[in-house]
Amino acid sequence: MRKRTIIAIIVAFVLTIGVSALWSAQTDKRDGDPDANTIEDNGSRAGQSEKKSGNKIGKIFGAPFRAIGHLFHHKDNDKLQRMTAKDAEKFESSPTTRVDDASDVKVKRVSVNATAREHFANGRALLSNGQLNEAIAELTTAASLDPSLSEAHDLLGIAYDRKGLGDRAKDEFDKAVRSAPEDAQTLNNLGFSLYQNGNYRAAVDRLKRAAKLAPHDDRILNNLALAQCRVGKYDDAYKNFARAAGELEGHLNVATMLERAGREDDAIKHYEAALRVQPNSTIALRRVIDLYHRTGRNEQAEAAQIALAGVGDGAAVARSER
Hints:
- The protein is an all-alpha fold.
- It has helices at residues 2-28, 34-41, 56-69, 85-91, 116-128, 132-145, 150-162, 166-179, 184-196, 200-213, 218-230, 234-245, 247-260, 264-277, 282-294, 298-321.
């Protein structure tokens, strides 16, 4: 009984440390383009079409259980040993929980005679799992077996982008676009890659083409608006932000980008416009209060502060009446 208690304590400890370490790693540094991250904080999607992260639930629970696996390694070598009856007895009274995630992807071994599509499927799974080097190897094989397989070049571009190899990513996206010139998502990925690497005018050109092919795709419209901000086309950027998510988000996103560019007076105008659309927007009120103070408009800052307090009071009253 005492041994079972000790094992249970060890398992709980390892789980706690593993999850805590992962949480710290995820919150210490945020990946991705800072401007794209900023508008995503406002509720707008941006970036490449492929998801940037793998199976988070699998990562959270996988690392601690991999650590538990070391309990079954012998000290004299590094080979995993078969779990004995004695080991099983230690755990037989412990409850287990299985976590199923719909986004879980299976990585399979492919034979030497595998087709381009089989290598592609495996490469996509590896990419989703964050195994970039392995994914690049599989996707490169797929593309060499079938040069017209635009999806392989597209995912290769994403993989290279994640490794910080912008030029190689652009080359792969270019190949993907040549194979599928009318594919909006491929154009989007190329455009966003160009944007990330500072080629803003070229990014605007590709993203405009993508937006014509998929006029209601909010991610493409937001990426186009980001690139337009970078070339100083803030009015055009507002139109595309608004097409993607409505007037309020349009004004908030442009105001945020203007603020980041140091154009505080222009940012204030868009925050004020956002408040005309939604007077109780706490995001707009908080930001405009800060900008009013920074630009010496103290009376306006005080009036906005009163409005913000009123929003809070109204929410408190609503909660008390429930």
